[in-house]
Amino acid sequence: MLRIVDGRSGEAVEVDPGRRVPLRVVAHTGAQGGATALRVLLLADVLARTAEGWGGQVLVAVAGPADPVRDAAAAAMGIRPRAARGADLREAEKALAGPARVHVVPADTRTDTGTDTGALRLDVGPVAPHEAAAGPALRLALLRLDRRDRAEPTPRALAAADADLSRWRGAVARWAEAPSRPMSAEYAERLQAALDADLDTAGCLAVLDRLEEEAALPDGSRFETFAHADRVLALELTREIGGAGS
């Protein structure tokens, strides 16, 4: 079962992923701009993808002013667009046609997000510098961290993330040419366990790091497992399949 640590109580709470009724989520960008707002949207995206993996229906709205530049940056990071938007919480929940059950907010926000009514609060740490080059490398760099930690995506950190992506994409392209094999049940369980434990994307990526070095597994199995994980991570790991260098 999916569990989220409530930012107010500090307790892990089980979350119905939306199999009975839609899981309504509000991502609070508010006055936050730049990379911190993008991180809020990123965690809402990961939550939605994880819940959908459980067979749930997820509805996400953004509470905050419209920002076409931020929306373009979010798209560059693989964050799926959300049609629902409101200038504040009231308008966002009206667009969702119901109250939110999860609020994704900057950790230092002082704005009442409505969590006192029973909704969960998913805190997201700040990002500095305020501006960072949006793209898959930034997505990976942020997912490597605990969501509450301060993130500092320096040019060096982004270059390292980009190198990891290039290596993984090349490996996935090579593995795709191997005979088909089922994905590794053991590693798939580890990946799911990490995501279900408070959206531990850093733990999920650590599992992929180990899987990459697991030479005892058939390449076809490693390919299927990486491709499965990318449904949530959305790092375009299969992008180079069929390319000239694969």
Characterize this entry briefly:
The chain is an alpha/beta fold. Helices cover 43% and strands 13% of the residues.
The shape is globular
Number of domains: 2
Q: Spell the H/E element sequence.
A: EEEHEHEHEEHHHHH
CATH topology of the largest domain: Rossmann fold
CATH architecture of the largest domain: 3-Layer(aba) Sandwich
Number of helical runs? Answer: 8
Give the low-confidence spans.
Answer: none
**Oligomeric form of this entry?**
single chain
* Strand arrangement, major sheet: 5-4-3-6-7
Q: What share of the residues lie within helices?
A: 40-55%
Describe the structure.
By secondary structure, this protein is α/β, with parallel strands linked by helices. It has 2 domains: 3-134 and 144-152, 3-Layer(aba) Sandwich (Rossmann fold); 156-233, Up-down Bundle (Four Helix Bundle (Hemerythrin (Met), subunit A)). The chain is built from 8 helices and 7 strands; from the N terminus they run E-E-E-H-E-H-E-H-E-E-H-H-H-H-H. Helix 4 (136-143) crosses helix 5 (155-175), helix 5 (155-175) crosses helix 8 and helix 6 (185-196) packs antiparallel against helix 7 (201-212). The longest helix has 21 residues, at 155-175. The chain is globular. The relative contact order is 0.14.
Q: What characteristics describe this protein?
A:
246 residues, Rossmann fold, Four Helix Bundle (Hemerythrin (Met), subunit A), 2 domains, five-stranded parallel sheet, two-stranded antiparallel ribbon, 43% helix
